[in-house]
Design brief:
Length: about 375
C-alpha cells in the first residue's frame, strides 16, 4: 500500500518547524493546541476540545467500527540550553504531532480508506505522566477497538530506516514519603528518634527487595532531606523512592514489598507516611495491534526494516489507555531516525525525513486494521 500514499512533505516540514520552535510545558500547550486546531480546520476535520485543559480529539468518520485511535503527545520540556532556560521539544513530540497531522490530512482527503472511524488524540502532559488519565477521565474519548501511538527512538536503540512494532516501556512509580520522629539535642540522641536512622534502615530494606524473575527491576532512593541544624536530632524528613519493573505484575509485587518495608520501619518512635505517588504502567503487548503495525512497517521499510523491540528503561503514559481498559488493542511504533545523542538532551537531532516514513507507516496501520468483535 505504501507506494499509493502521497504526502505533502513540505507541509510536514512546515508543521514541524513551527512546532519545534514553540514548545510549551505540560498543560500549558495553549498556542500548540491553537495551531493544531487551525491545521485541522484547514483540512475540514472536526475536533473536540477539552473543557479544562489543553489538547483536543479529532474525528474522521461516523462512528462505524472499528474505532481506531491514534495518539500523539504535545508537550515539551523546560531545560537550560545555550546559557538560558528554554522550553524544548527534546523528546520529539514536535515530530509526533507533525506525523499525526499528516495522517489527518491524508484521511481527510481519503476517508473511504479508513476501515471504520479514526480518532486522533492530541494529548497534553505526557512528560508529567498525567495527561492520558485526564483525557480518559474527561469522557470525550470513549472506547477504542485499536489505539496506535508512536515515538522517535535514539540511534542506539533503533537505527534510521528501521522501526519496531512495540516500544516495551517499563512500569515506573515514584513514592513521596515523610518520616517523622522525635527531636533531641545532638549530645543526647537517646532522648530522641532520629529520622536519619529511619532513612538508613528503610534504604537498606529497599536494597533487600527481591523478585523471582530474570527480568530487570529496581528500587532506588533518589531524594532525601532532613534537618536544619547540625546540633539537633531531626524529627522530620522527606524522601523519594523510584520503582521500575518490566511488567505491571512485577510492579505490583515491588509495591507490596516497598509498603511492607515502610511498615517495618514505623517503630520505636519513627513514623513513615506516604504523601503521594506518580505511576506510569508498562506496555501491555497486544498481538493483533503488533501484527498490524509489523505489516505496516514492512510495507514501508521492507522486511529488513522491521526490527525486534529494543530494551528500554523508559516509560510513557500512552499505556494508561490499555491499562485502564479504554483501548482493547494497542501498540506504539518505535521509529528509527538516527536520533543523537539521546532523548531529553537539549539540542538533540534526528533525520527529519524519517517523519515521512513514520506518517506512511501510521497510515498503513490504519488501513490494515481489521475489526475484532
Amino acid at each position: 500500500m505504501e507506494e499509493t500514499i502521497k504526502l505533502d512533505e513540505q507541509q510536514i516540514m512546515t508543521d514541524f518547524n513551527y512546532l519545534h520552535t514553540r514548545g510549551e510545558t505540560a498543560f500549558n500547550e495553549t498556542n500548540t493546541t491553537a495551531y493544531l486546531a487551525k491545521r485541522l480546520d484547514e483540512m475540514g476535520v472536526s475536533y473536540d476540545r477539552f473543557d479544562d485543559m489543553t489538547g483536543l480529539i479529532a474525528t474522521i468518520g461516523d462512528g462505524t467500527k472499528p474505532i481506531i485511535g491514534m495518539r500523539t503527545d504535545i508537550d515539551a520540556l523546560k531545560q537550560d540550553y545555550q546559557g538560558k532556560t528554554q522550553v524544548l521539544h527534546s523528546c520529539g513530540h514536535d515530530s509526533h504531532m507533525s506525523i499525526v497531522l499528516a495522517v489527518a490530512a491524508y484521511f481527510a482527503a481519503n476517508p473511504d480508506q479508513i476501515p471504520g472511524t479514526l480518532k486522533l488524540i492530541f494529548q497534553p502532559a505526557e512528560e508529567t505522566v498525567t495527561g492520558a488519565e485526564k483525557v480518559i477521565k474527561s469522557g470525550k474519548l470513549g472506547q477504542l477497538d485499536y489505539l496506535y501511538g508512536l515515538h522517535v527512538c535514539a540511534k542506539n536503540e533503533v537505527l534510521g530506516k528501521h522501526a519496531e512494532a512495540i516500544i516495551p516501556d517499563i512500569a515506573t512509580r515514584t513514592y513521596w514519603v515523610t518520616i517523622t520522629g522525635k527531636t533531641a539535642h545532638a549530645g543526647r540522641p537517646e532522648l530522641g528518634a532520629n529520622v536519619i536512622d529511619g532513612f538508613s534502615s528503610l534504604n537498606e530494606k529497599f536494597k533487600q527487595i527481591k523478585l523471582t524473575t530474570d527480568l530487570p527491576y529496581s528500587v532506588t532512593t533518589t531524594m532525601i532531606h532532613a534537618g536544619e541544624s547540625s546540633n539537633i536530632v531531626p524529627d522530620k524528613g522527606t524522601f523519594a523512592v523510584d520503582l521500575r519493573a518490566r511488567t505491571n505484575d512485577m510492579m505490583d509485587e515491588l509495591q507490596a514489598q516497598a509498603f511492607q518495608a515502610m511498615k517495618d520501619v514505623s517503630v520505636n518512635g519513627i513514623q513513615v507516611t506516604l504523601d503521594g505517588n506518580d505511576f506510569s504502567p508498562a506496555a501491555i503487548p497486544s498481538k493483533p495491534a503488533m501484527d498490524t503495525m509489523s505489516r505496516a512497517i514492512t510495507a514501508v521499510l521492507g522486511a529488513d526494516g522491521l526490527v525486534e523491540p529494543a530494551p528500554t528503561q523508559g516509560g510513557d503514559d500512552f499505556h494508561f489507555y490499555a491499562y485502564d481498559g479504554v483501548a482493547k488493542e494497542s501498540t506504539m511504533l518505535g521509529l528509527g531516525c538516527d536520533l543523537t545523542p539521546g532523548l531529553h538532551v537539549p539540542g538533540m537531532t534526528f533525520d527529519r525525513s524519517a517523519m515521512f516514513d513514520g506518517a506512511k507507516i501510521m497510515i498503513n496501520a490504519v488501513q490494515m486494521t481489521t475489526y475484532r468483535a
